[in-house]
Amino acid sequence: MLYPMSPKVVELKRKLESFMDRHIYPNEERFYREAEELGPWKVYPVVEELKPLARAEGLWNLFLPESSHGAGLTNLEYAPLCEVMGRSHLAPEVFNCSAPDTGNMEVLERYGTKEDKERWLKPLLAGEIRSCFAMTEPAVASSDATNIESSIVRDGDHYVINGRKWYTTNATDPRCKICIFMGKTDPDNPDRHKQQSMILVPMDTSGIEVKRPLPVFGFYGVPDRASEVVFTNVRVPKENMLLGEGRGFEIAQGPPRPRPHPPLHAPDWPCRAHAGKDVPPRAQPRRLRQAGLRANGDAGAHRGSPHHDQTGPAADAQRRLRHGHGRQQGRKERDRDDQGRRAQHGLPGHRLGDPGPWRRRHLERFRPDAGLCHRTFAAPR
């Protein structure tokens, strides 16, 4: 840690790590198995079994600051707890600290009416329901949220919502009951950051269709539950508008949203590799074991092993699996090793910037005149 932890955080972290050792790591394999067997449209029993245990030990709603409902931690205090929870896909929801519920609960706590808090915040804090946040759209570059095109149009005492969203996490979960929807109420406003608004949309409202779960980096969308959702003439009461029209960015960039979260959407291998040093191999989830991240090893320790000088596609594949190399990392190392051997024997192909034998074969295979289905390999030059 760059900064010393307070005694309160030290104690919470100790309790978290103990809970992870006793309940999270031993159940990860079951969690992934249930996710694969039940799919993104079902509730996973292991999660519901562990929630009461976490709550009984006081490890519940740790994310919520400045509130009687949470632990009252600052960002600096909450960050090391996120690091611990982020070691497992199973952990965040067990502690009721998983996105997007955490951000949505913070928004409701700060900007929701008394009725909103009673209807939505209370069951969310209890872990009885889940929520989703609909902002990203397939038709535009939504990393810049000023580009979003979904509309929120006032019609008497209601707002009419239209738009197509995707990567709307949790939408396929049967417990997902409320959505915070971001769209444009004033698309002609010269201030682009005052065109958008946020509004509460109950998921059982007519006109909402959860189309499908989405793959994430080529993986099936579980347990993340990333989803594509279509809103067609969805009508909600005007009281569902949060904070007021044109204040969507104010909410999104306000105090609640910059809160840290356990890594859910980003690639989490560094975090899991860190966890792997402290977790017995038998307790590691299948994906972690298959990736070859050893419990007490170093990904670079193989360089002095007898396997390091073995060559050929089979040896390369085995080495990557044994020592946790991703596909791209393995290719880079293979090229580097190959070029090193060529330099040792005075052969061409080792100069800086040379694509290396593997890359040359790859380029030759997919050259324009070869066709994608015709496999050809050029001889090493």
In words, what does this structure look like?
A four-stranded antiparallel β-sheet has the order 2-3-7-6, with no helix packed on it. It has a three-stranded mixed β-sheet with strand order 1-4-5. It starts with 6 loop residues before the first helix and ends in a 16-residue tail after the last helix. It has helices spanning 7-24, 28-38, 45-56, 75-85, 91-94, 101-111, 114-125, 248-252, 269-276, 286-291, 313-323, 327-344, 356-365; strands spanning 130-134, 151-155, 158-166, 176-184, 196-202, 208-213, 227-237. The protein is an alpha+beta fold and 381 residues long. The radius of gyration is 25 Å and the shape is globular. It has 13 helices and seven strands. Residues 264-309 and 348-381 have low confidence and may be disordered. α1 (7-24) runs parallel beside α4 and α12 crosses α13 (356-365).
- The chain-level structural class is alpha+beta
Question: Strand order within the widest sheet?
Answer: 2-3-7-6
Radius of gyration: 25 Å
Q: Fraction of residues in helices?
A: 25-40%
Strand content: 5-15%
Indicate the mean pLDDT.
77
Number of strands: 7
The profile of the biggest β sheet is: 4 strands, antiparallel
Spans of at least 5 consecutive residues with low confidence: 264-309, 348-381
SSE run: HHHHHHHEEEEEEEHHHHHH
Distance between the termini: 50 Å
- Multimeric state of these chains? single chain
